[in-house]
Amino acid sequence: GLFMASGTMGNQVAVKLHTRPGEEVVVEERGHIYNYEMATMAALSGCLARPLRGDDGHLAWAQIEAVLSPPIYYRARTGLITLENTHNMAGGTVLTGAETKEIVDRAHQRGLPVHLDGARIFNAATALNMSVAELTAGCDSVMFCFSKGLAAPVGSMLLGKKEFIQEAWRVRKMLGGGMRQVGVLAAAAQIALDHMPCRLCEDHENARRLARALAGMPAFGIDPAKVETNILIANLKGWTSGELLQRLKERGVLAGSTGAAQVRFVTHKDVSTADIDKAVGVIAEVCRMR
User: Fold this and answer.
1) Distance between alpha carbon 9 and the CA centroid of its chain, in Å?
2) Are 63 and 3 spatial neighbours (Cβ–Cβ below 8 Å)?
3) Which range marks the domain in which residue 241 is found?
4) Which end of the chain is less enclosed by CB atoms within 10 A, N or C?
5) Domain with 224 in it: what CATH number?
């Protein structure tokens, strides 16, 4: 593997190495690679995204196969299939090992590589009670973040075969990622790997605790059964996200907007169960003031 300054850098190095200019990259339409990486697949790799809407962020092989380019000279070729696990903007949903394996196996039969944006893959593995190795088996490359649930201050890893990583080293340098001082960052990442995966279940339970509380408030539309990991996204009733988030921020509760009337909460190492209960109290108070 190769240390990366960010998950975006890791993803885009992989796209660059797997594709040629003028090819298409299949991606779930809410995927990070498509929406939050500054169109780098176009700017750096000369590729066009082929977005698909997945069920709770999950792409099925039948969907993917339907948009693969036929071998016709006037159609752009499909160069890469990308997956995201967990899926951030679908609410931290989990792609199972069986789902991943089917896509990887079918893609390889078609001669196509698969890259996994696994920024939160340790959360997925925890939710499924699987190892990360089992969950990512067969993928041609995998990126995961040290700085999400694993709680390191910075950094990500790009994983792949030896030849792939050797080329990734060169592309990383092109992007300004050749840090001679990376050892001090890698030390924190090592602690994250050694000590943080075993506590991710606490974040998941805290997210479910919050979801159950919000589901009982008229201002929120959320199904607690769909909260699988440490992210929950709720639709608002009678509020705009900007108005609600400002009221909460004034009272010490931070969340994010994912739409004009939709908000996102994330649990992590620095949010305890007591913090969840305190946040629930603040949210309930704000909603009563409406």
Assistant:
1) 14
2) no
3) 199-288
4) C
5) 3.90.1150.10
